[in-house]
Amino acid sequence: MAELTTKGLGKLLARQGILVAFVVFMIAFALANPRFIAIDNISGVIRSSAILGVMALGVTFVVIGGNLDLSVGSMMSFSTIVVLDLHDKIGPSLAIPAMFAMTLALGGFIGFLVGYLKLNSLIVTLGMLSAIHGLTLTWSGGKNMDIADKEGTWFSVFGQGSIVGIPVPILMFALLAVVLSIILGKTPFGRKVYAVGGNGTAATFSGIPRARVVFMTYLFSAFCVATAGLIQASRSLGSQNTVGQGLELEVLAAVILGGASLLGGSGTVFKTVIGVLILGFIQNGLLLMGLAFYVQYVVTWIIIILAVWLDIAAKRGRLWSPIA
């Protein structure tokens, strides 16, 4: 009986361990500071997580397709700086589509290198991380960007506005999550993404255009990054040119926490949203406990390691390697 209980507990932790850990964290934070479960705090956490969440939705497509995208942080910096700069030059009505077009062009270029030229996604996106950062600094001249007339622009609605009392960033995050969830779970394209990520060779022999599918996943990722950049720029109406630096690791952590496999072929948009909220509430809880903000980086690293371990454990059906 004890052995069966141990095996059952091991399987539970292997498959749902991160959710168990999340519940433990939530209870601990609530006991440490009752304000943690206050409505305004919960709303604030979700709102502050919207930018990370929107980016994670796009990366979910890339990861399920069997690849990585480490360029999203620097790409978000680029999109934020570009739309702020163009806002004063050509107006927000033209600046927004221009920024989306440029960001999609960057995503398409990455998709071409990974999908059609079949280059390693880790190497390509790691290189593009530096390249896009350099492009951002070149565009901005190494300076931060601010909108000149912050009081007379409707541009602030994306980051500061609300509809029926719900902040617009939360609504954009939720709407995009619903649309992308339908695309991934209910359309032929979504099934092709799972097939390519699960077994690319078999998908190719089945007649699925593997290169095109991979290319499209990076376009989805770039679109989500541009949306996140729009929210970020609108929220403060100004930005540092390194605003997205380091976000690629948090985005990847959220996606993997949500159950997407680094090996590709598994994951859902809904679970990615859960992963984003897990990170957001853990970071908020640490701050309410009085820990310095830089402790979040250490915790994020621990969570990534834990998520990867649990992901591998779920695949082999046990927490520990059979060799150990």
From TrEMBL:
Subcellular locations according to the entry: Cell membrane
Protein name per Swiss-Prot or TrEMBL: Sugar ABC transporter permease
Which InterPro entries does the UniProt entry name for this protein? ABC_transp_permease (IPR001851)
* Membrane-protein topology: Multi-pass membrane protein
UniProt lineage: Bacteria, Pseudomonadati, Pseudomonadota, Alphaproteobacteria, Rhodobacterales
Q: Where are the transmembrane segments?
A: 12-32, 44-64, 94-116, 122-142, 163-184, 213-231, 251-282, 288-310
* Keywords of this entry: Cell inner membrane, Cell membrane, Membrane, Transmembrane, Transmembrane helix, Transport
Q: What is its main location?
A: membrane
Query: Matching CDD domains, A to Z?
Result: TM_PBP1_transp_AraH_like
Chaperone keyword on record? no
Q: Is DNA repair among the key words of this record?
A: no
